[in-house]
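Deliverable D5.2: sample structural annotation.
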Amino acid sequence: MAKLSKEAAAVTTNKRPLTTSLYFYRGFYIMFIPVLVFAILFHYLPMYGIRYAFTTYKGVKDPVFIGMGNFTKMLGMPAFWSAFGNTIYLSVVKLLLNTFAAVALSLLLNELRSLKFKKFAQTLVYLPHFMSWVVTASVFTLILSPTSAGLVNSILVKLGIVQAGNEIYFLADQKWWVPMYFMINVWKDTGWATIIFMATLSGISPELYEAAGIDGANRWQAMRYITLPALANTIITVLILNLAKIMNLFESVFVMQNDAVMKQSDVLQTYIYTQTFNSGALPDYGYTTAVGLASSIVGCILVLVCNKASYKVRGRGIM
C-alpha cells in the first residue's frame, strides 16, 4: 500500500521520470502501437501525395512543377463551381431535412404508450440504416421506374394523374432528381438520428411531465415547454457535428446519378472521380489532387467554425 501511495503521489506531482512512466504504462503503449501504425500508414503517409497538387502529372512522365496553376485552372472551370454549389446545397438541405424528420419521428415515438409497439416502430425505422447505398439505389430505381414495374408510376397511372406511356422517369428527370434524392436520404438516415434523440428523451425526468399535468398542461403543451427545450441542445449538437462533414458527399450521390441529371447531381467528390476515371482523356492527377486539396481545406475550415460554434453552444469543442 505504501508503494502504491508513493507512485500515486509521484504521478500527481509529475515528478516521475519519463523512462519510469513509459515502463509503468508499458501495457497501454503496447496496445496503442497498432493504432499508431494504422494512422501513419493510412492517414499521414498518403498526405505526402499533396505535392502533386502543385504539378501536372498524367502518370506517363515525371510530375512537372507548375505552382498554383492547377488552382487557377480549377477556379476558372464552370464545372467545378457547379459541383461546389451542388455539394453545399445537397448537403445542407439533406442535413436539415434529416434532422427535422428525426426530431419529428422521435417526438411521435416518445408519445406512444405501448412499449412493445414503440420498440417495434424504432426497429422498423432503424433498419434502412443497415442497407448499403448500392442496394438502396437499386430498390428505389425499381420503385421509381417509368415502366409498368415501377410502383409509383403504376399508382399514378391508375389514379389518372399520369397517362399511360407518359410515365415519369424520376431518377433521370432534372426536375425530379433532387426531390427524390432528399426523399431517399430521409428514408434511409432518419432512423439513425432518431435513436440519438430518443436517448435524450429517455433522460427527461417523468416528474416534469407529472408537474405539468397537475398544472393543467395538455400533451402538446408538455411537448412544447418540456420536450423540445430538452432536445434543443442535442439538435444543435447534431447539426454542428454533421455540418463539419458536408464536403464528404459522395456515395449517396454517385449510385443515383446519371448523364441526364449530371448538372443537378455532380458534387465535388463525383467531379474528382469523373475527372480521374471518366474524362475520356489521359487524366491529370495533379489537377484532381488540387481539387481534392481545396475540398479538404474547405472541410477543415468548416470543422474549425463548427468547433468554435460548439464552444459557444455547449461550452466545449468537438475536438
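Annotation notes: The radius of gyration is 26 Å. Residues 1-13 have pLDDT under 50 and may be disordered.
The annotation will be released with the project's public dataset once the embargo ends.
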